Amino acid sequence: MIGVLALSAGCKKSETPAAENQPAASQPAASTAANALPQVCSDYLDKATACYKKAGPQFAQAAQAIEQSKATWSQQLSAANYDKAALESACKTASDAFDKMKPMLKCD
């Protein structure tokens, strides 16, 4: 859960993304792809949610925090200056930390 809270903060970068310089016709497709959560984040969120649900009702709050993180990240990715690479790195770190917790949660 620590990883969830740490990742909720979000990272921003100052440079303007290339998508803003594209013609308007190509922006929606580029914008949609850019707003998608990195795969490592989706994988982390899915395995953490499944694990917390399997681990029992005492972890309901942790499962809710995972869902809140997903909503927050999706919203932040729609910001033009959001650093998706930093989010991807943070998700990898959280996923690795979560993998170490899984045996304690007995959700394998």
Please describe what this structure looks like.
By secondary structure, the chain is an all-alpha fold. It has a domain at 37-108. It has five helices and no strands. It has helices spanning 2-7, 27-35, 39-55, 60-77, 84-105. α3 (39-55) runs antiparallel to α4 (60-77). The longest helix has 22 residues, at 84-105. The two termini are 17 Å apart. Mean pLDDT is 76; it is low at 1-30.
Q: How large a portion of the residues is in β-strands, by DSSP E?
A: under 5%
Could you say which structural class the secondary elements and strand pairing correspond to? mainly alpha
- Average pLDDT: 76
Q: How many β-strand runs?
A: 0
| Main sheet summary | none
Please describe the topology of this protein.
Layout: H1 2-7, H2 27-35, H3 39-55, H4 60-77, H5 84-105
Helix pairs in contact: 3-4, 3-5
Characterize this entry briefly.
The chain is an all-alpha fold and 108 residues long. The chain has a domain at 37-108. It is 67% helix and 0% strand.
List keywords for this structure.
108 residues, mainly alpha, 67% helix, elongated, disordered N terminus
